[in-house]
Design brief:
The chain has about 260 residues and is α+β, with helices and mostly antiparallel strands. The chain has helices at about 60-70, 70-85, 125-145, 150-160, 165-175, 180-190, 200-210, 215-225, 230-255, and strands spanning about 25-30, 35-40, 45-50, 100-110, 115-125.
């Protein structure tokens, strides 16, 4: 490690020696869910400082720092989306893109409950799919924030990518449901194959919509393939509603005897 003031982060942590001699060194910052990330990168070498106002456990701080190592990849793919005209500006305050990459030679420095430093080599292992995942992340943010124009700019591109096309089709159905329920139901039944969906957040949104529309069986199918805690919680609610429906049907049948 060295302590060259030119490349110190937050005036406290020294960075790996490879950064001192990197002519293509780049710096960026992000903030999400109470965590600030400052990132220095050069080719596959990345260093991150993750800081929080309110502390977390040491293992959680290390996990946040590791996630921050993927931020230069996200920045690279955001630049490609900008160049394609699929987005008009980048967003800093939103969840990490779930990109595919490999971390090696990771080292931590001065980890506390409010700050963690880490450095590693980060190799992109999904050059094709990572661009699509970044675009899908933006589409989901646009859907949640009701930015219809921005969402509709992205959807045709996403629908052409087999690895994310069903998640994109689900966003179409969900967007239609905001103003035309019959059209949304028709589109969902005709075009969406729920077994091919991959994004947990979109699966949760779709299952929740189907649950509200009493399509319990399909909603349950989606939650059972989804990996998030929220999906598991919704799955329990659906199973309870199905049990209530079954009991009601049994009661109705007993009245005939």
């Amino acid at each position: 490690m060295i302590c060259n003031p030119r490349i110190m982060l937050v005036g406290i942590l020294c960075l790996p020696t490879w950064l001192s001699a990197s002519p293509d060194l780049s710096e960026s910052s992000w903030q999400f869910a109470g965590t600030r990330y400052r990132v220095l990168s050069s080719n596959e070498k990345v260093s991150v400082i993750a800081q929080r106002e309110f502390g977390l456990a040491i293992d959680q701080m290390k996990s946040l720092c590791r996630k921050g190592l993927g931020l230069p990849l996200r920045q690279r793919y955001e630049a490609q989306l900008l160049a394609k005209g699929l987005i008009t500006e980048t967003l800093s305050d939103w969840p990490m893109a779930n990109l595919s990459y490999r971390i090696s030679d990771i080292h931590y420095q001065q980890v506390s409950t409010q700050m963690a430093g880490c450095s590693a080599t980060v190799a992109d292992t999904g050059e094709g799919v990572n661009l699509h995942l970044t675009a899908l992340n933006y589409a989901f943010v646009y859907f949640q924030s009701h930015q219809s124009e921005s969402l509709y700019r992205l959807l045709p591109y996403l629908m052409e990518q087999p690895d994310v096309s069903m998640d994109a089709a689900s966003l179409v159905a969900l967007a239609l449901s905001k103003h035309d329920q019959p059209k949304a139901v028709h589109y969902f039944e005709k075009y969406v194959d729920v077994s091919a969906m991959k994004d947990d957040r979109i699966q949760l949104e779709l299952a929740s919509w189907l649950f509200r529309n009493e399509n319990y069986d399909v909603a349950l199918e989606i939650t059972e393939q989804c990996q998030s805690t929220h999906c598991r919680e919704l799955s329990l609610d659906i199973e309870e509603r199905l049990l209530e429906k079954e009991q009601a049907s049994a009661a109705d049948l007993s009245s005939y005897f």
